[in-house]
Amino acid sequence: MPRIVIVGATSAIATHVARRFAERHAHLVLVARNEEHLRAVAEDLKVRGASAVDLYVADLRMKAAHQDLVDRSVTILGTIDAVLIAHGVLPDQDECDEDVDKAIDTLMTNALSAVSIMQRFALVMKKQGRGVLAVISSVAGERGRPSNYTYGAAKSLVTQYASGLRARLRGTGVHVLTVKPGFVDTPMTAHLPKNMLFAAPSHVADAIVRGMRQRTPVIYVPWFWRPIMAIVRAIPERLFMRLKS
């Protein structure tokens, strides 16, 4: 019976990941801000086979909640087999350009809170001598673009921190997985016109669970984002600055 913590459990991708673990009769600790939504997700997971579902309601922008979240998870689960950090927001870049506080809030939510929670769970897993720590970053973190550089900068920080943490924990029995989705058809992107680059959240969830099981260091979802981003990273800065998006 796997013992799993899912942070940002009401997001579309996280919910599908939780369903995969529920089918394996996992004991789940779900973390999110909206209690009503969280309870609805929990009831669905119980029907799908979860052995137990515990809830932790918190605004993850508040650092004071992070250590309590980790301590409560240890108290509930004992040994933690895996953690998925999946919370985040997709801000309007124009609003961030005009409102510095909104930009800072975005960085706090998407980057600093993720790093804070990731590091605290890493310490627990290192003491255990085992565990998988997965964090959702984004291909947006690979190069700053005018249309979403605040979001991209946050994801870039998450990617680099996870890379260093993975190297730091090598040989301890703890594995860190970085997930880099491209466009995903979720409520977060409901305002964007859809095209063939959009992936279904269920597809992304399958890739995450497979990556956690196989202890893959980094996954791009879908796979074609890896060569696409290699090309994007190779574009000279002067040329890249002329691109509109």
TrEMBL record:
Cellular component annotations (GO), alphabetically ordered: membrane
Database matches in Pfam families: adh_short
Entry keywords, A to Z: Oxidoreductase
Domain of life: Bacteria
Molecular-function annotations in GO: oxidoreductase activity
Family in the record: Belongs to the short-chain dehydrogenases/reductases (SDR) family.
The name this protein goes by in its record: Short-chain dehydrogenase
Organism of derivation: Candidatus Kapaibacterium thiocyanatum
